[in-house]
Amino acid sequence: MANDRQERAARAEKMRKEREKADRKQRNLITVGIVVIVIALIAVAGVAIKSISDDNKKNEALVNPANANKDYGILYTPEDATGKAPAAGAKPVRVALYEDFLCPGCGALEQTAGSFLNQQVAAGNIEIEYRPYAFLTQQSTNEYSQRAWNAAVCVADKGGAKAFKAYHDILFANQPAEGGPGPDNKQLIAWAKEAGVTGIDSCVNKQTFTPWVEDALEQGKDDGVSGTPTMRIGGKDVSGKDNTIPSVADIQKAIDAAKKA
């Protein structure tokens, strides 16, 4: 009998120890789980705080230029071209043009259709909204694409749409080749004087509007733009056959269609 009692006692003690061991294991797992959750929450909070901080820094650095709209466009109108108020009821067709000043295709479009577009604006048929899309910044040795757009926005900020258009045309008339150095800031400032704008040396050298130009690029991507030149007339993309640069005939056809619509 004594042996039976001892064996039962031993089994009971063994079961008690096993239960304690199981309880400790469960408590340890719960503790580890809580620690993992806390660490995850701290990490998420850290990411959120960093994101807010980065956004705040970005907003602090972002300077919105005068004479540009909420869509990152600089609008050149018939009134800018002629100096005359538009006729009553006149409603020119909106031509949105995404450009990079280093883009060979943009230079080609300017050569083949630039004069036609100018005539159409002066005649009151269209207005052109120039939108920065500086995606070729790394295709020069001195980030010309981005610097050129910053300088152009400096001109628009100080001199308005007419001065911007003159500067726009000067930049394309002196477009550098990809892969090498683009014109330096001193030259960009000199060309601004040719366009009738002075006093933007600090704006050009400090790249005041570069954050805005970068935002414009991101907005363009959100708008479905993947390269330049991208032309939209009446909200519809315009291109030549096989997605080539649009010809004057292509542009005229799109303007006529937008007028009817």
Describe the structure.
The protein is of the alpha+beta class and 261 residues long. The protein is built from eight helices and five strands; from the N terminus they run H-E-H-E-H-E-H-H-H-H-E-E-H. It has a five-stranded mixed beta sheet with strand order 1-3-2-4-5. Helix 4 (144-173) packs parallel to helix 5 and helix 4 (144-173) packs across helix 7. The longest helix is centred in the N-terminal third of the chain and has 60 residues, at 2-61. 35% of the residues are buried. Residues 47-60 have low confidence and may be disordered.
Record the SSE blueprint:
Blueprint: H1 2-61, E1 74-76, H2 78-82, E2 93-99, H3 104-122, E3 126-132, H4 144-173, H5 185-194, H6 201-205, H7 210-222, E4 230-233, E5 236-238, H8 248-260
Parallel strand pairs: 2-3
Antiparallel strand pairs: 1-3, 2-4, 4-5
Helix pairs in contact: 4-5, 4-7
